[in-house]
User: Which sequence fits this backbone?
């Protein structure tokens, strides 16, 4: 399974998990070319850490444009959800 699709599934299935929140913020940073603290990736469990690295790899290759759009939309929803009081 491609990392972008795997991340989307993780975020959808576990939206309140630390991994989903971190991966969502990573995606938003990648899409907007904003800064992202690399130390946040190191705080992930090993499986999510590997997934983050694969996302970076796929994002750089830019092969999965349609998957990126769906993942970006979901990550944006997560950001809005977790900003609410």
Assistant:
């Amino acid at each position: 399974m491609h990392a972008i699709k795997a991340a989307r599934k993780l975020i959808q299935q576990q939206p309140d998990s630390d991994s989903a929140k971190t991966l969502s913020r990573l995606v938003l940073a990648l899409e907007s070319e904003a800064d992202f603290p690399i130390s946040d990736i190191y705080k992930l469990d090993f499986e999510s850490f590997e997934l983050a690295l694969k996302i970076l790899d796929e994002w750089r290759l830019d092969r999965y444009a349609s998957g990126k759009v769906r993942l970006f939309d979901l990550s944006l929803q997560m950001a809005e959800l977790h900003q609410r009081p």
